[in-house]
Write a structure and sequence with these properties.
The protein is α+β, with helices and mostly antiparallel strands. Helices cover about 60% and strands about 10% of the residues.
Amino acid sequence: MRPRLEGLALIIAITLQGCSLAPAYQTPTVSLPAHYKEDAGPWHPAQPADQLQRQWWQVFEDRQLDDLQQRLLAANPDLAAALAHYDASQAYASQLHAGLFPQVGASVAPLRQRQSDRRPLRGTTQPSIYNSDTAGLSLSFDMDLWGRIRNQVAAGDAQAQASADDLAVARLSLQRQLATLYVQARGLDAQAKILRASLDDYGQALQLTRDRYEGKIASQLDLTRAQSQLAQAQAQLDDVNAQSDLSEHAIAELVGVLPSEFTLVHDAQPLKLPDIPQALPGDLLQQRPDIAAAERRVFAANATIGVAKAAWYPDFSLSGLLGGQTQGSGNLLAAANRYWALGPLVNMPLFDGGRRSANERQARAEFEEAAAQYHSQVLKAVREVEDNLGQLKDLQQESQDQQAAVDAANSAERMATSSYQAGAVNYLDVVTAQTAALNAQRRLQAVDTSRLQASVGLAVALGGGWRTQDAPTESTRHAWAAHSQNVARR
């Protein structure tokens, strides 16, 4: 009868190997809008094949920006730290996987030792000093009948996947910082160009006023106003140059070099404003790594509930020992010197003061927290897309209105200058018109910079642009080859 019972017990144990006490997992549902409020195009679910380009900044068609982004990938210390954190999470997941396999160990202990003369039950013929040579193998295997280890492994894998997404979040954030700073630097170059052109105009106006003053046509007040106008424009240019220096230093930090070793090529030509499709694809949930990380943490929290529930049940494991022991002579493997042990171990705490119950409540609460954070992340993502779409729409209209203001201000400046030369107005009218024209031009350029920065924000809000995946450039392959497989999207 006993062999039958042992066989039945073995069948039950094997059957329970597939048991898991974790709740059936379902991704938390979030109600998504049928379309973006700021976009006429419909929202539609992401498809597994949908994948946007990693080099999203290439929509601006600027070689210097592309080169800086490759340098960031290769040398940014914050990105290196995020990568090391990801590697650590992968290693921890591998540690958890080890629990699925038998643990085998070996030990060797060649000892020479002395026993106490007053040792209890010591025989009169036993020597005080003797050798004890021991060698053995040990084996242990947790049968994991209730899925505790398997749920730990599932949670660890999900956390490692979330860490990969965290790495992608860090990379995308740094790329956004670099692109935003570069757009700002190019905008400052354009501001400097406008101010230098104004300085030339103001210099000519000052010379005209000085000639008129020396000819006793203009007053000293007119001359002073012209001098003040020129000095103020120069001060504005100095301020723009100072801001440009700060932008350059910040870019140097992002690409991992000292400011003294970095020089940004200045270019006043405007960047290409990318064309944004009227109907954006619904790739948001697929592309944004922060949302993917939040979902993986929900899964991990769900698996942790299974770990907590398994603690209520007995823990079955198998253990075995095999070895030999001698007194310093003889064959360790001889039959008379062998020792062995084999058998199951069962462990179940009978009273723990409510610890297991508290652990299970904690696991369920952490699942609810992770689900709420996932919901929050999705809402944040939709809001960021709406923000940047709204910014682009409003800034486009502002740019058109501001262009009209520039045209009017330039016309007023020309009329004021002509009227002053004819003696019809005083120089205050010229100064007022020149100031209005300069401010209008600088404001138009600032709006254009804001439109470019909003385009950067939209690309990041969508998880990496709105175009289909392009083949990586050779520089991208070189910069990211060492870890491209690690950070590949699932």
